[in-house]
Automatic annotation (TrEMBL):
Pfam families in the record: DUF674 (PF05056)
Entry protein name: DUF674 domain-containing protein
InterPro entries the UniProt entry points to: DUF674
Species the sequence originates in: Triticum turgidum subsp. durum (Durum wheat)
Organism lineage: Eukaryota, Viridiplantae, Streptophyta, Embryophyta, Tracheophyta
Length: 221
């Protein structure tokens, strides 16, 4: 990603980004709150979400309903979506299901989290069973997987990313208009800076985005 920096004001005016960056930024909108808290760290969260997350972590199993899994809240699996990005290494949904290991009168219970306690006998539900998709679902799932692999936005376009993370297609005219919007008088103060978004930078962007309108400046300057 290429940043245009006002060195005098020490701020990022806007950035030029490709498909991978924009797909990642849009994927942040699909993150469950529990996943965001886990990635950032409960103690680093602004507001009450961190305290809420720790409350579930500390909650004794005796207060949890039989068959309910704390991991479903603490480590939720994201639904398959074209906006999902692999940058943060998020879990993806699977069609794996498990039954009770004793299977003694427990045929009515199934879970998608291995090790969940059986609501009937409290044994661990660890025996994997076969999932039979409905007619037409295989083709639909394959199409969804292809769309997810292709990402969310088109790759032949360059995008403008504002300091606030607002995204729009880039053009020469739009870039000139942006410079006029910022009322830049001294063009010699402008400097290009190329940055790479990896796991660390992705987490910093995720952490800053709910509380800042100057995310790119906060993360990269």
């Amino acid at each position: 990603m290429k940043l245009l920096v006002d060195t005098k004001a020490r701020r990022v005016l806007f950035a030029e980004a490709g498909k991978d960056v924009v797909d990642f930024l849009f994927s942040l909108l699909a993150l469950p709150i529990g996943t965001a808290v886990k990635l950032i760290g409960a103690k680093s969260m602004v507001g009450s979400a961190g305290d809420l997350y720790r409350s579930v972590e500390k909650l004794d199993g005796t207060y949890v309903q039989p068959g309910a899994a704390k991991d479903a809240i603490l480590r939720p699996v994201m639904a398959r979506s074209p906006a999902n990005s692999a940058l943060l290494g998020l879990p993806t949904p699977s069609n794996r299901f498990f039954r009770c290991s004793s299977f003694s009168g427990c045929r009515d219970y199934v879970t998608d989290v291995s090790g969940t306690k059986c609501p009937r006998c409290s044994c661990a539900m660890t025996i994997q069973i076969q999932y039979a998709p409905p007619a037409g679902a295989i083709a639909q799932n394959a199409a969804t997987a292809v769309a997810a692999a292709d990402g969310f936005v088109r790759g032949v376009v360059t995008y403008t990313v504002m300091d606030s993370l607002a995204v729009s297609p880039m053009s020469a005219i739009s870039s000139i208009a942006l410079l006029n919007t910022f009322a830049v008088r001294d063009l010699t103060a402008l400097q290009e800076k190329i940055v790479h978004i990896g796991y660390k930078e992705g987490l910093e962007i995720l952490k800053a985005s709910p509380q800042s309108k100057t995310v790119l400046t906060d993360v990269f300057l």
